Amino acid sequence: MPDGTIEPKKGRKFDQVLDGARTVFLSDGFEGASVDDIARAAGVSKATLYSYFPDKRFLFMQVAKTECQRQADLAIENIDMDAPIRQVLHDIATEMVDFMTSQFGKQIFRICVGESDRFPELGREFYESGPVMIRAKLIDFFEKGVARGDLKIDDFELAAEQFHELSKADLFPKLVFNIVEDFTHEEKERVVNGAVDMFMARYGT
Amino acid sequence: MPDGTIEPKKGRKFDQVLDGARTVFLSDGFEGASVDDIARAAGVSKATLYSYFPDKRFLFMQVAKTECQRQADLAIENIDMDAPIRQVLHDIATEMVDFMTSQFGKQIFRICVGESDRFPELGREFYESGPVMIRAKLIDFFEKGVARGDLKIDDFELAAEQFHELSKADLFPKLVFNIVEDFTHEEKERVVNGAVDMFMARYGT
DNA sequence: CTCAAAATGAACTGGTCAGTTTATAATTAC
DNA sequence: GTAATTATAAACTGACCAGTTCATTTTGAG
Question: What are the residue ranges of helices labelled H in chain A?
């Protein structure tokens, strides 16, 4: 029992399979990805893959969960919560837009929406580890703002969801319906600043 | 040439096929729906179906387009554009929420998002006949509001997209990720009123 | 009634894919 | 160095599905 290294999750090739799966799922979607493709991309035999994961769905869930966690960890801690309020709002909105427009953000959303009817845990799982987390962070910040006297908010949950939606205005539909591939910095700024202006007009003191 | 009746679109069973297709696509999605199922639901042989439509995608596009048109026609003309501005905004937001939460609205969105990667015309088609139409209507109304002195707006497009997004706050994610099936009138009112309040705080005079 | 156009059903083609099996080879542990 | 664990390749099962074909029946117009 060599406990010198941190216990590897499941076996030598576990992460290798997960990596291959992430690549293929992200580029082909859930239905579009074949298990043979995933095994090939992972550099692993199909039999090995099936020795780690009971089926394709489970494998996909694992990929989605892992990746969401990774993204959430990355995104949160480069915002200075003590900067002036408009600055903080601007930065948060920018983070959200950047995530949404990233390859991963776009694809994971597309897949979760497309499959969450035939595959309900998936939608729930994503909702819990995405939107719910974001909302919690926003509410935290709003509470500070109210305490400081910068904001006046009655329904915190609604305010958080409003800010979230505002940050995606115009960009989001164009993205999910494949009207455009990506946005310039200026296009993003227009929406982000619009969101901040609107939010402060409503909830600023 | 009996022109007494309005020219039937293509043949006796055209609409019958379309109806069956709508039913099956809406309940099973695009990939999930089999052409055999559709033919069965339409009460038509597969050969007949293929004599009307070249392939499954074309059939789906036809269903989506027809249904969007139908919904758009229905929704638009029961709003009194000359009522007080908050009233009009409230009514428009309510229409949008009702559409979004309808079986058709939910499913067509889910399918278009899920398939628009492998099937790009679909996304574009839906965007043009959905969000773009809504935005145009909103901008029309905003222009009237500005002329009347009720509103002050610089970026009309952005304002329209913002109002659209605000009207879906909180409700939309819960729907597409299958957290809830439907909303009460009160739940909808909370969001709709929140959208109107926010919009007027920013753009009201 | 007649005949052509439209519709039927059932079989068939060619393809894809998830998941299993098996005999063999590589790794690792002791 | 040997035995046990883990991985491999490749073939295979069973199922599903889009789209075609064709011999037969139904429909409807004149």
Answer: 14-28, 35-42, 46-52, 56-76, 85-101, 103-115, 120-129, 131-148, 156-166, 171-176, 185-203
Question: Does the beta-carbon distance from B114 to A110 stay under 8 Å?
Answer: yes
Nearest by Cα to A167 from A196, A138, A205, A200: A196
Q: Which of B107, B127, B170 sits opposite A158 (nearest CB)?
A: B170
Condensed to tens digits (0 to 9), the pLDDT of residues A19-71 reads: 999 999 999 999 999 999 999 999 999 999 999 999 999 999 999 888 888 88
Reply yes or no on whether the pLDDT at A76 is more than 80: no
Instruction: Set out the domains of chain A in order of their start, with CATH numbers.
Output: 8-54 (1.10.10.60), 60-203 (1.10.357.10)
Which pTM does this prediction carry? Answer: 0.88
Which ranges of B56-184 does DSSP label H, i.e. alpha helix? 56-76, 85-101, 103-115, 120-129, 131-148, 156-166, 171-176
Q: How many CA atoms lie within 13 A of A135 on its CB side?
A: 19
Does the nearest atom of strand D lie within 7 Å of B33's Cβ? yes
Nearest residue to C29, CA vs C1'? A1
pLDDT band of residue B84 (cuts 50, 70, 90) is very high
- How many residues appear in chain B? 205
Distance, in Å, from the CA atom of B85 to the CA atom of B75, rounded to the nearest integer, reads: 19
Query: Nearest CA to A120 among A44, A193, A57, A73?
Result: A57
